[in-house]
Specification:
469 residues; mainly alpha; disordered C terminus
Length: 469
Amino acid sequence: MPASAQGRKKPPKQKKPKRLQNNKTWFKFLMPRSGYLEDIRIGEIDTPFLILVVILLVFGIIMMYSASYAWAIHDDLEADYYFTRQLRFAALGLAAMLIISSPVFDYHILRHPLITYGFFAVTGVLMAVVLIMGRITGGAQRWLEVGDSFSFQPSELMKLALILLFAHMISANYKNIKTFRYGILPYVLILGTVSAMMIAQPHLSGTIIICCIGLLMMFVGGVNMKYYAPLCIVGAAAMVLVMILLYQGGYDYVEERFESWLHTWEPQNRDIAWQTRNSLIAIGSGGLFGLGLGNSRQKFLYLPESQNDFVFSIVCEELGFVGAAVVIILFLMLVFRGFKIAENAPDKYGMLLATGLVIQIGIQALLNIAVVSNCIPNTGISLPFFSYGGTALIMQLAQMGIVLNISRQSIPRKEKPDADEEELRRIQDAKDTLAAPASARGTGAARGTGTDRSADTVQVSPVRRRKSH
């Protein structure tokens, strides 16, 4: 064979990256082919996070039942009508959470472009449809009706769609995240488009939540602060300007909400501020320990939507300051535990995804509590796990399932998930051997005998290690 032909050897075949080891997930064809996935193991879910979710869910259903039966009777329904329906929604949500958090699902499939961009596109279409043929309630056009008994808000789906999209885009472009073109511009365009569709409903609380989620995910993703800080300032100013324009632009719905917030106790605002007034009365009536579970007075047709957006007022009235503090502490613990899961996520996508989902719960709880205490205008926002609503509850539990699925693969850096106990013992023996003085670790190989001595057959005489100065 000529020398020139010998020199032209075929390049070695590139091995395809292995898929996630120990992975029993369905839809494996949607799993990305990335080299880093081969070192990840499927472990157990984060038990403290699961316990917090279950406690909030049970606590919320009990309080929703206490706050709802008077209005159910008033509407010629069974006293437990809202309670039984919420139980069904909770069962569906728990089933979704258990499936999504189990080993048969892997959050990496959500990163597939077909799912990420497809879900966002479908949700965007639904957001446009609701502006054309959505149901109008209380001056807002936010609900799409399917049949006679089912309706949902596309804005609830948009929250998840935006989190999936931002987590995918930031993790895919993290090398260029410091630039304006890849780190700021596309996210601003997306947030601006979604916010415009929400303001048109109008849905101010949803707009605030969407913007907060997007901006905080950008911050966590590591955007350049030189561009990010002015963006936040301009965004806040734009939001204030939009509120002023809506307030003065003939939107009766918005104008009444601002009037009831700014002049709650004025006699002429008695009707439009009725809900806010009775919410504050309920909170004040609870005192330190409350009137007792089930003993609320404001829920007897004084406080509208007591089973929905204003259920926290009933918590304050029946369980007092102590009960309200417990609810707030539970939400804070859930958020901090979720951030811990995000910190230990095996990749940037998992970290951003967990962060976005937990931020949504935290911001929504914060805004709801701010509304019922009249710190901000009444914007019609529900309290996660507590307020009545099927779509919202199912979505929230499904999203917590995604966080739990991430926790299955969240490997703290100090641990070695690939090693069993025997392997860890060998590693430690080898470390002890290398740390010993040279006189104590003479081996057959060092004497030139060629004897193969593995780490678990090395005999190390007990010696005192040198102190490092």
